[in-house]
Amino acid sequence: MKKELMLELLNTKQYKQLHTLLMENNAVDIAYLLQQIEIGDCAIAFRLLSKKKAAQVFSNMDIQTQSQLVELFSEKELESLIENQYMDDLVDLIEELPANLVTRLLKHVDENQRQVINQLLSYPKDSAGTIMTTEFLSLKKETQLEDALKYIKQNGNHCKSIYTSYVCQDKKLIGIVSTKDILLNDENKSIEEIMKEDFQYVYTHTDQEEVVNIFRKYDLVVLPVLDDEKMLVGIVTVDDVMDVMVDETSEDISKMAAVEPHDKSYFETSVFEHAKHRIIWLLVLMFSATLTGSIITRYENAFQAVPLLVSFIPMLMDTGGNCGSQSSTLIIRGIALNEIRFKEIFKVMFKEFRIALVVGVILAIANGLRIYVMYQDINIAFVIALSLIVTVILSKLIGCILPLVANQIGLDPAIMASPLITTIVDTCSILVYFNIAVHIFNL
Fold first, then answer.
1. Are both 114 and 147 inside the same structural domain?
2. Considering its fold, how many domains does the chain have in total?
3. Mean pLDDT value across residues 200-224
4. Which pick of 31, 57, 129, 439 has the fewest CB atoms within 10 Å?
5. In terms of residue numbers, what domain contains 326?
6. How far is C-alpha 99 from the chain's CA centre?
């Protein structure tokens, strides 16, 4: 369905036809379309949806559109919206909405729901507790499969996932059973006979990144969440894990580009906010680069004796920065995927050293020959070739060591990416270059 068609049907008040078209579309696509039109038209189109579809569409909208719709909704519409929202989506909404709108929403929440909301909001930021939902299927081990199927049919509509049911005894999780196993086994069997007692789980305070890693490692679609007493309190579903992955990736990309991470989209963020998020790192990197300038100043005599040396500074600095960035990017990726750990730092260094040696020698030969052909000066060619080899080795070692050290001391490895690595490597490459030049030319 196209935006133009939606607007045409709204303008001509063909609401019945628009309702039919909207109900044929996916909730995510509808949410995207409604966000593209004026909020008044958006509210009209939204009211044409069924209650269940409307809740799905609403949960896929950005917070700005959600806030505007909540302001326009009647109390009855708000009550209907809350009834059809999953608890984790409702908590996300309450976290983002202004205080006055939160107050309106909470008027339509019963005491039990309010307690659950308060509990979910109390968990530490970026923990499993903040992304879990409390709607799940719980069975008893003595339940027969026939009765279990009836239970799923009666209660599944209120749960976010019906693929897995959880077997609890005194609220403690003792096993899991898939709906597929319930369907395919003899209906006279009990849940205890087919349930799995070996399963993955996390605690409410488990970091979200660890949750993502477990999902990826075991190819899960849902994961139970336990409290400190090993009682089942919720589940994390794959859609929430995907959101975490997007957020974590966006944060890492921002840090790798020396930009302070934030939640708003590019166009939602004002010019001043963009500048504020970028300026701090730019100032740090700018002032740290003055060290490189002061080193260059110390070797003015070398410039005067061999002016040609100056022309190769950008090439050496760029090569060193690029080599360091390559290594740091691969190491950061390896850390994120749990492929590389700090205890393997010497193994990583040895591998990067060998890579640097191969790369450095090839670059040195290529540049040495080029310089000799152009300037007919074997000393200059030798200085550049040797400087390249040493610079590449240092750059790749720095690029692999810093992210591992940062991760070990509790910092995000992404901060040790291109801008910072480049600044450090620039200083090292200049020191290497001029020290080699001074010794070769006896300056």
1. no
2. 3
3. 92
4. 439
5. 278-441
6. 27
Angle ∠(164,168,174) on CA atoms, nearest 5: 85
Rounded Cα distance, 443 and 434, in Å: 10
From CA 351, how far away is CA 333, in angstroms rounded? 16
pTM over 0.70: no
Structure token digits, residue 404: 């591992």
Instruction: Give mean pLDDT, residues 317-323.
Output: 88
Closest CA to 94 of 66, 56, 68, 123: 66
166: closest CA among 237, 238, 232? 232
Percent of the chain with pLDDT over 70: 95
Separation of alpha carbons 233 and 135, rounded Å = 9
**Sorting pLDDT into bands at 50, 70 and 90, what band is 31?**
very high
In a domain, 271, yes or no: no
Q: Has residue 264 been placed in a domain?
A: no
Alpha-carbon span 434 to 296, nearest angstrom = 8
pLDDT digits (tens, 9 = 90+) for 160-199: 889 999 999 988 999 999 999 999 999 899 999 999 999 9
